[in-house]
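#dry-run=false #mode=assembly
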Amino acid sequence: MIPSTFDFAPIWLTLRLATITTLLLLLIGTPLARWLSRTQSWLKRPVGAAVALPLVLPPTVLGFYLLVMLGPQGPGGHLTQALGLGLLPFTFAGLVFGSTLYSLPFVVQPIQNAFEALGERPLEAAATLRAGPWDRFFSVAVPLARPGFVTAIVLGFAHTVGEFGVVLMIGGNIPGATRVLSVAIYDHVEAMEYAQAHWLAGGMLAFSFLVLLALYGPSKRMQESKS
Amino acid sequence: MTNLKSQTSAVLLGLFAATAFADEVQVAVAANFAKPVERIAAEFNKDTGHKASISLGATGKLYAQIRNGAPFGILLAADDATPQKMGKEGLSVPDSQFTYAIGKLVLWSAKPGIVDSQGEVLKKGAFQHFALANPKLAPYGLAGEEVMKKIGVFNAIQPKLVLGENITQTYQFVATGNAELGFVALSQVIKDGKITEGSAWIVPQNLYNPIRQDAVLLAKGKGNAAAELFLKYLKSDKAAAIIRSYGYELP
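#status=ok
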């Protein structure tokens, strides 16, 4: 039985956060991945390393810096205030910003790998058929890199759902704005409301397993059909 | 090779000797008591040769960890209800429980001039974010909620609340300026009897129930010389002076 006081708000909030973050990441990550896959610039290595940082850093590092940089005394805080956006910590927009940074490598790297595996030849072939650069990109590169995009979307979405440290540190646990699933679970556990914690935590476990199952399932079939 | 071997065994022997002569106790401590306990533990280690190591957290979290087998010998809680409950559940030695400090609540801002000496700022409500430790988890949060309800400003402030997971995180929200003000523990913003920075209102005791912070010997600490000695040490004049210097009262 689901407890009568069960609160669904964190679930919707989390899904909204993950959806918006994933869309944003596709918009930012696709050109970035394309650039990383082709460039000969010396900037490739430092940019690639910066993108991968969230894989290595504990979320507390990112959360701490976001809190300080985006606060009223930080440079980020000055900027958002000057732009009339106010301050980002304790807002949904702040969580979107933090999650976008935190999930960046999970979206950029699969797309970059797909582009790199593709190489330049299909695009050169398209160019001889007088396809313009945009046309080449959207009707050749993107469809051929589709498995990379699927992986990126699934990982970006799932990783945002599973995020905890950053949202705890810059969120402030506000119902409907920043109290996402992982924070709600943590709260229930600390308050010893184990029944509610079990419902949310169990649901999350099942969700994550299904997501990964979906991710591993089709790619295997695709490999089989290729061979 | 033999050299390396003998070196290794010498190191191992040294480690063994250290554990044989001095006992170690892991002390679980409520976050608000972080600063004083750090000093008390340092003095304790120096004076007795035993070792007390400190783990900080919200009282509720520490309770959950202890219930699930955490290796703590002592709990310094932020309330008296949690140690009582543990006594009933057989997790602690009931007659070892005593009040080691009475906590003080303070309304604090990292900026000077925000909080006035009467706390009128609460009624004016000229702020965007107000930091409070989650009342469900932290006794200082509960006390803060009590104060706001007594003054009659809780409903007005509630939409502006940002909740810290414990009192340390609440302090962090205010110290970074992300929340203009909030209720924190006096011990976090006081040193040698003075507020170290910003502006503060030490909330009068009649606005909230006393935050009696109790210590208790846990089942795992029973028979551990260091644990039993640490509890005694906590009652000493030396410890009392340290505790008072952080703005706590003693029973």
